[in-house]
Amino acid sequence: MREEGEGYDDRRDEGRRGTRAAVHAASGGRLGAAHPRQEGPTDLRLVPPALAAWATSAVMLDAAPAWVTGTAVGCLILAGVLMTLRVGRVGRVPGAMTGGRSGWPAVTAAAVLVCVAAAAVSAGLHGADLRRGPLPGLAERYATVIAEAEITSDPRLVRPRVRGPAPTPTAVLIEADVRRVETRDGATMVTRTPVLMVVDVERRRSSSSASSSSASSVGDRPSPWLALLPSTRVRVTARVVPPADGGDIAAVLRVRDPEVPEVVGEPSAAQRLAGRLRAGLREATDGLAPDARALLPGLVVGDTARITPELDEAFKETDLAHTLAVSGSNLTIILVLLVGPPGLAQRVERRGLAPRLGISLRTTALLGGALTLGFVIVCRPDPSVLRAAACGAVALLALATGRRRSLIPALATAVLLLVLYDPWLSRSYGFLLSVLATGALLTLAPRWSAALRARRVPPRLAEALAAAAAAQALCAPVVAVLSARVSLVAVPCNLLVEFAIAPATVLGFAALATAPWAMPVAKALAWCAGWPAGWIADVARTGAALPGAGVDWPGSWTGAVLLALATVALLLAGRRLLRHPWWCGACGVLLLLAVVQPPPLTRVVTGWPPPGWRFAMCDVGQGDATVLAAGAGTGVVVDAGPDPVLVDRCLRTLGITRIPLVVLTHFHADHVAGLPGVLRGRQVGAIETTAYQEPVEQAEFVRREAAARGVPVTRAAAGEERRTGGLSWRVVWPPADAAVVPEGPNDASVALLVRSAGLRLLLLGDLEPPAQRALLRSPAGPLLAGVDVLKVAHHGSAYQDPGLLSRAAPRLALISAGADNTYGHPAPGTVAALRAMGAVVLSTDRDGALAVTGEGAELGVAGD
């Protein structure tokens, strides 16, 4: 019994120990409920010093040395004066030292000043590190050097983003410390300067032949740069450039000759072990479903290399991105297995593995410390990981010394230690969100949970609701600054995934630990973990796909303040609403309708989509995505735009659930990159493309997406005619003659002449003047005269053939272009020429999404 009671305060007597069972019975019978005599005012004395150190670090990183020195010396002098006055008062007033908390403000003020001085010195030294050494000067001259650098983080792949016809290049980003620099003139300098290495990589592709109606199987071999472990030393030839936005790096190294990294120093033993464990987890998850395969390493150790842009966007839209960043919850789950529920850690009935194995409290604390250290090494020292580890270390120290644990002082201590150790964390959004979320769980969540239980909400549900709502309330303003968007589904999505995170994490860590020694067991554990991981991904995708999943919000600190004020107002109104269940139910129904936005209700409220629409042009930014109506919930999609989220949202608002055919006019990214959004959750019959397979990367991307969903791929040729329902169309370009070689992907665009309810529509893709003139001379040329609607080629660029425009003579000309695009689309000359022919000209950059209505001679158009 003595061993089990080691954590108790010595002031407790044996009689009080004997009444433990009665006390816990009186607390409601729930294990872990607080002892009534342990409740009291929260100890907030460490909060002001921690906040003061945080603010000082953020300000002093860029300060001049004189300001740093003056601040530190001045604060220390003031702290000394305060403590001198305090000691003098103690001498004059007998018993002042033990007279309660009368001296608390003076001691706290002195502690704040000392922490400000320490933070100023630490921030000043870290800021000076970026200004010392040769790299800042070399960056100003954009010099080319040979550098020896030690990698400090896992390399990460920057996926291409669509910027016009072609995506941005694929690159690997690596944080490193440069240790040695050799310039062109032969000078060698030793330094230790943090940098960001940018390696432009080419991914080798191999494809196997397949029939023309199916996609080729494509395999990508990742860059060898992605296999480098932290603490590895590499030698690179690079151009030194200044950092774009400052931060905690002195320069950016743009690496040349990136074929294979030249390793001059092997990683440490700890990092090799961590790398082996992470690689084992990836291998164990290889056979899982795509979402679980991508998500499980991210949930367990923060390895997001397999997360697709589409899935990543879904997690951001639903505010579930924190599940992909290893945080305190991961460490807590592991420690709870060891020590049991925190509320029982110092009691006789404590639970977990440790008491079952007969391990004492102090030994348990040491084991917990070893787990925490291993957690940081395997998961990498990101801001959220460091915060979790520091907070856990303070709590374990309290457990080992037998003192009563208080989590708010532990959090304040963790913040203070971390900003003193690494002042750059004071400017990290990830660190800020981590601290805010933890603070919400420790302060707001218990009060809100108690309020909900008082209104007869079941305890477990009350705790989950309070935790999710509290974290969302404090973090939402910061998230709005980063994303310019407020999620309306964050709380329900977080509630739905909460029960799945713990089993996925525990089973994932078990697979991680067993993979190097027993891969079959690891695969079995990973298969079990794949079910909850798949559920989390399904929740994210479903939530993000809802039409009203979020609302746009000003992405600035002014917007954050406005959101914070709106949140406070909502909470005050909510307190009153809780007294009226019927009003709560009505508000809940209204919120549900706003998020789900059923098409019939949306059409009544917004008028979109207009009844009887025949053709819709989605607003997808600088790209093309159009839909031809072919019956209730059915449509032929022509091009997919640059963004899966935007095109998916457009199709949902149009009510499209079945797509007999997707026509991709050509393989530029602004026409095909959104294909995953078109295919998501819809029945798709086939994909038809141009025969000109350039750019190769985008053509392979289309084949991969089609093969993953079992959708056949065919090639269009002039003369082909098709019909579905009341919709019919004819392919008028490109010619079937293989001898005709287009000048580029634009001139190989599939062009369609469509008939729908007596209306004639001409869709020209991105055809440029050479192909437009050839189209006029082709057998289909005479058929193009006098169309009702023209989808203007190439986003309304200046490169149009006047002869084709004159032949088409459209009544309505529609242009798909992105607002404020850098290409000057649509060109004023093109718009003027069309209007001179009597056409009504509308474009998505000004008018939003557009829908054509009417039959026969009647023609109408509506905007979203």
Topology, element by element:
Layout: H1 14-17, H2 20-26, H3 47-60, H4 65-92, H5 104-131, H6 135-140, E1 144-151, E2 156-158, E3 162-163, E4 166-167, E5 171-182, E6 188-200, E7 204-207, E8 218-221, E9 233-241, E10 251-255, E11 262-265, H7 269-284, H8 290-301, H9 309-317, H10 328-339, H11 353-356, H12 361-379, H13 383-401, H14 407-421, H15 429-454, H16 459-483, E12 485-487, H17 490-514, H18 519-545, E13 550-552, H19 557-577, H20 581-596, H21 599-606, E14 613-617, E15 626-629, E16 635-638, H22 644-654, E17 658-659, E18 662-664, H23 669-672, H24 675-679, E19 683-684, E20 687-689, H25 696-709, E21 713-715, E22 721-724, E23 727-733, E24 751-756, E25 759-763, H26 769-777, E26 789-791, H27 802-808, E27 812-815, H28 828-836, E28 840-843, H29 844-847, E29 850-853, E30 860-863
Parallel strand pairs: 6-10, 16-18, 17-19, 18-20, 20-21, 25-26, 26-27, 27-28
Antiparallel strand pairs: 1-5, 1-9, 2-5, 3-4, 5-6, 7-8, 9-10, 9-11, 12-13, 14-15, 14-29, 15-16, 22-23, 23-24, 24-25, 29-30
In short:
By secondary structure, the chain is of the alpha/beta class.
Tell me what the structure shows.
By secondary structure, the chain is α/β, with parallel strands linked by helices. It is globular and about 100 Å long. 43% of the residues are buried. Mean pLDDT is 80; it is low at 1-40, 95-101, 203-220 and 342-349.
